Amino acid sequence: MPDLMIQAQPPLEFIPPNFNPLVLRVAQQVLPMWRRRHTAISQIEADNVEVLVDLYRQFQEGKIRFLMAFRHPSVDDPLCLAHLLWRLVPQVAKQQGISLQSPIHSHFIYDRGIPLWAGSQMAWLYSRLGGTPIQRGKADWMGLRSIRHLFANGQFPMLASPEGATNGHNEIISPLEPGIAQFGFWCAEDVHKADRTQEVCILPIGIQYRYVEAPWKAIEKLLSELEAASGLPVEEGSLELTPATQTLTPKAQNWLYCRLYRLSDRLLSFMEEFYTRFYHQTLPTVTGDTTPPSPESATHLNEGLAVRLQALLNVALQVAEEYFDLSAKGSLIDRCRRLEQAGWNYIYREELKNVKAISPLERGLADRIAEEANLRMWHMRLVETFVAVTGYYVIEKPTVERFAETTLLLWDMVTRIKGHSPFQRPRLGRQRVQMTIGQPLSVSERYPMYQASRQGARQAVADLTEDLQKAMESLISSEA
Question: What is the 3-state secondary structure (H, E, C) of the chain?
Answer without folding.
Answer: CCCCCCCCECCCCCCCCCCCHHHHHHHHHHHHHHHHHHCCEEEEEEECHHHHHHHHHHHHCCCEEEEEEECCCCCCHHHHHHHHHHHHHHHHHHHCCCCCCCCCCCEEEEECCHHHHHCHHHHHHHHHCCEEEECCCCCCHHHHHHHHHHHHHCCCCEEECCCCCCCCCCCCCCCCCCHHHHHHHHHHHHHHHCCCCCEEEEEEEEEEEEECCCCHHHHHHHHHHHHHHCCCCCCCCCCCEECCCCEECHHHHHHHHHHHHHHHHHHHHHHHHHHHHHCCCCCCCCCCCCCCCCCCCCCCCCHHHHHHHHHHHHHHHHHHHHHHCCCCCCCHHHHHHHHHHHHHHHHECHHHCCHHHCCHHHHHHHHHHHHHHHHHHHHHHHHHHCCCCCCCHHHHCCCHHHHHHHHHHHHHHHHHHCCCCCCCCCCCCCEEEEEEECCCEECHHHHHHHHHCHHHHHHHHHHHHHHHHHHHHCCCCCCC
